[in-house]
Amino acid sequence: MNEINAIGIMSGSSLDGLDLCCANFRKNNSSWEFEIQAHSTYHFDTILFEKLKTVRSLAGLELATFDIELGQWIGERTLDFINRNELKPSLIGSHGHTVFHQVDRQLSLQIGNPQAVAQKTGLKVVADFRQQNVLIGGNGAPLAPIGDLLLFSEYDAHVNLGGIANLSLRNEKDIIAGDIVPCNQVLNALASELGMPFDKDGDIARRGKVSSSWTETLNLNPFFKKKLPKSISNEWVNETFLQKFPSLSNEELLCTFTHFISDRISEVLNDAGAKKILVTGGGTFNSYLMSLIERRLPDAEVIVPDTSLIEAKEALIFAFMAVLRINQEPNCLSSYTGAKTDLSTGVVYFP
Fold first, then answer.
1. Is 234 exposed, middle or buried (0-12, 13-18, 19+ CB in 10 A)?
2. What secondary structure letter does DSSP report for 239?
3. How confident is the model at residue 261 (pLDDT cuts 50, 70, 90)?
4. How far apart are CA 303 and CA 163, in angstroms?
5. What does the pLDDT read at residue 174?
6. d(CA 90, CA 147)
7. CA distances for 179 relative to 143, 152, 166, 265, 275, angstroms
8. Crossing angle, helix 60-85 and helix 114-121, to 10 degrees?
């Protein structure tokens, strides 16, 4: 299949909404090209947001029921997205919403029932992209680097400032990648204590001071000494950070953690000698965070694309992963997940 219109669907750990992107993908010889046709974000209503926020505490039957409920909601929003934009997709790649990601138990569970999405939309759906990789020794994350490798090859590094910040690095042979540091999950949680969904432009953090004692504690965490590839779970972020904030003002907490994010990201990029860096994800709208990252990368060109690509990139890549899966081409590589082999992964659901 050398040309196809596909929709990608992404619900991230920052809980800022359901991102959808429809694109046309074309393969010319061995190279892929794409054109975004439409993208949109559907925000969760209060009830759905609170359920997603506490989803890991649901009992088995409650979780199974919510899986169907969320899948139907995703299907309805996808159908609305298609109709509003007069799209003609033939395929959906749905990430779902991660509940558990525990590599040591060979487990990665996403909800948002893909069969329900297929039934609502009448389209073929590819989902469950992580579990097979985890079962053969991989981290199951990150997944975006296949898009970085094949759709954005002009950059030698790609940074995604999402709920968790991850990045990928190109070398002469392939691409290596991994999760680097919790990002918007922590910043948004701190902002929510002040009654705000996020720290707009990093203005609260900008007013604060860096706590040297908390910085020292953060730096002692052994995860940050590990080499790529590596991954972070939402459970780990919750247990390690969200439940253990020190007794500091919110301004100090936000300032310190914003600096910590920029330190961890720039450290990896500087060590790799990255020169041309594409930065996407919701964190790019945090001007204070971006200024810190750029300040710590004086010899690199840091590129933030237009808003449409920032908002659409993750969903775009899940659409692309679905296309590769249908084509039976590798869409999840061992070089950045640590698995035993490359995979063409994802389960296909028919309406």
1. buried
2. I
3. very high
4. 20
5. 78
6. 20
7. 10, 19, 4, 10, 20
8. 30
